[in-house]
Amino acid sequence: MSQTRELMQSQDKYRIALLSAYALALHGFESLLPTPIPWLRLGLANIITLTTLILYGIRAALMVTLIRVVLASLFTGTFLGPAFILSLGGGVISTLSMGIVLSLMPRLFGPVGLSLIGALFHNSAQLFLAYILFIQRIEAILLITPVIIFLGTLTGSVNGIVSDMLIKNLKKTDEKIQN
Amino acid sequence: MNLKGLLNSTTIADRILLFILILLSLSGIFFIKEVLPKGQIVRIEINGHPVYLLPIEKDRIVSVNGSEGNTIVEIKNHKVRITESPCDNKLCIQQGWIEKGSIVCLPNRVVVIIGTPEDESNKRVDAITG
Asked: Any chain A CB within 8 A of the CB of B2?
């Protein structure tokens, strides 16, 4: 019994490490892409967070997010800087919001809806943090909020669709292995 | 993946949420400017030093003492003009009412600028996200 449990745990660790590596790779790839607006981010790493959440639960998703944010900031040299605080706050809040919605109403939202919720909370958390820590001008924040929420909705739905495809494919492969 | 497959993989709640978010954010983009107070400020400078910072909402007439004499600035109905000036060419008076931008009276070294409070506060970079 304890042996199978250990096996499960080591398998979980392996999964979390692998998924964190994927998320980190997407995060790094995304920062290389030129974007038309400097603060527009696609949030590609959220594809992995969402997939982890749906397949392996909220704890694994939180771990993946934390590992991704900390390692990415270490690699880019922004660890404990303002960008790190924004990134950490947004990542944790969005993962928690998606996890809570999924555990409270498991059948209500699909990956696309969850991704939209994640994007909304990610952006709201970042705007709030930016307001209390850096900008402190409520008009400037209010002016930019709808634009950011709108862009987040667009990128969020695309990420949700990709995540949905990823989950379906992973399940298919799992079934093949089991058969 | 075709459009039908995509529709099948989303729940009704997904679609409602997407619709609400797009509706709210788009209407927010268009209407937030109307809701926010304009908060514009009339700044009067003499020789580059600000002497008056006045809200544009309040009608009033102020007299400032430039290098040649008194310039009288009038604020009314969210507009600003110079009514009297000791200069020779009176270009500042000819400019009339302005709603934005600035009036410069070079001989008397008086500058009237309509700006936002943000112009007054810091102009440094706030934050860079990553």
From this structure: no
Fold observed for domain B41-118: mini-chromosome maintenance (MCM) complex, domain 2 (2.60.320)
Q: When comparing pLDDT for A141 and B119, which is higher?
A: A141
Which residues lie closer than 8 Å to B4 by C-beta, 6 or more apart? none
CB neighbour list of residue B12: distance below 8 Å, 6 or more residues apart: none
CA A24 from chain centre, in angstroms, equals 11
Listed by start position, the domains of chain B span 3-35, 41-118
Say whether pTM exceeds 0.80. Answer: no
Share of chain B above pLDDT 90, in %: 18
Q: Within the 28-47 window of chain B, which residues sit less than 8 Å (CB to CB) from chain A?
A: 28-29, 32-33, 36-37, 39
The order of strands in the sheet holding B60-65 is B60-65, B70-76, B79-84
Task: Tell me the CATH number at A134.
Answer: 1.10.1760.20
Q: In what order do the strands lie in the sheet with B110-115?
A: B49-55, B41-46, B110-115, B101-105
Shortest CA gap B66–chain A (Å): 34
Determine the distance in angstroms separating the CA of A16 from the nearest CA of chain B, rounded to an integer. 22
User: Is A175 domain-assigned?
Assistant: no
Q: Name the one residue in this structure whose structure tokens are 């990128």.
A: A155
Question: Please, which pLDDT band fits residue A2 given cuts at 50, 70 and 90?
Answer: low
Chain B CB contacts of A80 below 8 Å: none
Closest CA to A170 of A33, A54, A82: A54
